[in-house]
Amino acid sequence: MNVVKPLSNQAYEAQWMPFTANREFKASPRLVQRSEGVRLWNQNGEPLIDGSSGLFNVAAGHGRKEIAEAVYRQMLENDYTPPFQMGHPGAFALADKVAELLPEPMNHVFFVNSGSEAIDTALKMVMAYHRARGESQRLRFVSRERAYHGVNMGGTSLAGMVRNRETFPVVMPNVVMLRHTWDEAQAFTRGQPETGAELADDLQRFCEAYGAGTIAAVFVEPIAGSTGVLVPPKGYLERLRAICDRHGILLVFDEVITGFGRTGKAFAAQTFGVTPDIITMAKAITNGAIPMGAVAARDEIYETITGAAPENAIEFFHGYTYSGHPAACAAGLATLEIYEREGLFEKAAELSPYFLDAIWSLKDLDVVRDLRGHGLIAGVEVHPEPGKPGLRGNELQKRLFWNGCHVKWTGDTAIVAPSFVATRADVDEIVGCIRKTIESV
Question: By its UniProt entry, which InterPro entries does this protein fall under (predicted)?
Fold first, then answer.
């Protein structure tokens, strides 16, 4: 493999990088020039193992030729169809395939281009639904501390990770936050904590404080991923569901990370046995090959919104130029075929115990503050540098890259989420590199 010729300083400056310390990165760039399977290769031609499936989206491994070929064929046949008042076969086929994976009764899928767009779309669906039912007074939304729901204006408004919101003060009003579910006493709990279900009762308190009839929806990640993998306590999601049912509040699961097999089943809703009213998804829907997201809604939500509009009128005034793009749909169909043909959801479930055992082997390291995990995703949290939260995690992420492993960090927590094609040897390599890197600081 050829080593990449260094770019000029000006070339690096041209891109304003997302969620990146731009000045620090451009002083010492970390570039990926090739990827295949569970491997990446940096600008020096050196291999890295991908410990986070890209950004939790490359579930079937990198470089899947089936997806590339499907996109190529689609682009030659039909590169673009306007999604407003028109359509193409691929979008309907993909929606049908996604609906087959969803819990009943969720049989209606609206396509977007990212998880962030999925959240904004879900917010609008909620508002349109309550308006159609004559309950426009439901203007309050409930989110959760430490929540991440993307970076569009709706998701920023729901953000419970303070740094994602503090620079952007003009956001949606009427958002209140449930307490997050992590407790120091639960440290090193594998799977769902035994205690903490009562934290869901915050929602009942909000009903009593603000009036249940003013609350439109509750948005939660079944597993809070981007904040560092907070697994819900036993009974917590069930209690949220019961409170929502009691007061006519919609329950929205943000499954952008957990969707498409990360917990061993198609969706975490099925893993935890709790069916929400709306599910947002993205990431693994196309194996990361092309940007795409979607929102699925219960049949009653779709039917209420569409049924409230006059005949021949647009029922839901929302959409994007690239909603259901033909190439993205081709990628999605090819991806779902791979998942089914190779039994990758089942492989993720089968690998999970070995993966979690490997993660928990790090417990002996003094700098490790907590380990959390479920399915094929885990958080490895280290003690912060005194008075400098996030500094140690930032340094470890950089060292991991040069030690031959990519893992996504949020603050002082590594989020480890190998692809579903990873082997036990791959898991050992990922965890071994994490150990070696942690021991070096």
Answer: Aminotrans_3, Aminotrans_3_PPA_site, PyrdxlP-dep_Trfase, PyrdxlP-dep_Trfase_major, PyrdxlP-dep_Trfase_small
